[in-house]
Amino acid sequence: MDLPEYVEHFRARVVQDALNEATASYWTRRAETFEAARHRPGIDYPGQASLDELRERWRDLTEIATACRNRATVSLMQDGIEPEVVAALREAS
Hints:
The chain is an all-alpha fold.
């Protein structure tokens, strides 16, 4: 891939990421990912982490998930990128 192709590909990825981050579904998925990363007592092995460390990590992940859900609430687009926008971006590249 030569430099102009690389730059064009990079530009398209930046625009795609920006559009994705404008959708509620993106932030909802991010919240679900952080919630899934929380320790599940009796299921997940805690390793060397103390109970206090596990609790702190649980709180941190819950706080991040809440922030993601709040961001989803105020998203510019509720469902995803409109097909017309995707088509226009493909034509521009």
